[in-house]
What does this fold into?
Amino acid sequence: MKENKKKKMKNEKYNQKDFLNTQEKMSAKGTNKEELLVNQDQVEGRNSVIELLEGNRDINKIFVQAGEKHGSINKIIAMAREKKILISELSKEKINQMAQTENHQGVIAVVPPFNYSSVEDILFEATTRQEEPFIVILDGIEDVHNLGSIIRTAETAGVHGIIIPKRRAASVNATVNKVSAGAVEHMKVARVNNIVETMKYLKEKGLWICGTDMDTKTYYYNQELKGPLAIVIGSEGFGMSRLVKENCDFLVKIPMNGKITSLNASVSAGIVIYEAVKQRN
It folds into this structure.
C-alpha cells in the first residue's frame, strides 16, 4: 500500500512538472497559452472555480497558491475535498506561469474541454422550462471578453442558449469563463458550421429571428420581442454579415445620440436582451 501511494504521488508530481515544462517550451516557441491545452482547459479565479464546483462539470485537479489559506480559498478547498478532487499547492511563480489570465486569484482548476451543446439541446432546455425559446446568436464575435460578458448577461436574463460559429469566432476558454463569472457553466453554448442554415432551422421550429443593425429604422423598444425568439448580434466593428442580415425576420437598432456612433457588442447585446426580458415578463 505504501509503495502504491508513493508511486501515485511521484506520478502526480511528474504530471505537474511535465505540464509546466510544456508551457515553458510552448512559450519559448511563441505559442499563445490559450492554444496550449488541447485535451484540457483551465478555469481561473475564486468565484469561477466556486461556480464550477457547484455545477456538474468534471474537474481533473485544482491548483492553489501556497500560503493562500484564507477567505473563499478555504471554501474551495472544502468543496473540492468533499467531491474528492485532487488539490495541489504551487508557488506563486509556478501558478503565475500556469495561468492563462492575469487575475487567477491564486486558484486554477484543470478541467476537460468545454462540452458544447447542440441547437436541439437548447430548444429542449426551453421545453424543459416550459418556456418559449429565447436564444442569442453571435455572428462572428472574436473578442473572448465580449463572449464572456454576453454569456453572463444571457444567463442572468434566462436565455436558453447561445449559438456561435465554429470558424472565425471566439470559443469558450479560461478567459471566457473568468469574464462570465462562471455563468458559462450554466449556459448551453452550441457551435455550428453555418449560422444562416441554423437560422433557417430555427425558423422551421417557429422562432422569429431579430437582427441588430444600425441601418434599419426600427428602434429596439418599438419592436415586439415576445414569443419564440432568437436575437442576432453582429461582430465587433463589422456587424452582421450580408447573408445573416438577409435571413433575419426583422431588424432593430439602438439610438445613438452622441458623437460615438457604435456600442461595444456585449453592451448592445445586453440592451436588446433585456428589452426582450421586459416584454416577455
Summary: The longest strand covers residues 134-139. The mean pLDDT is 85.
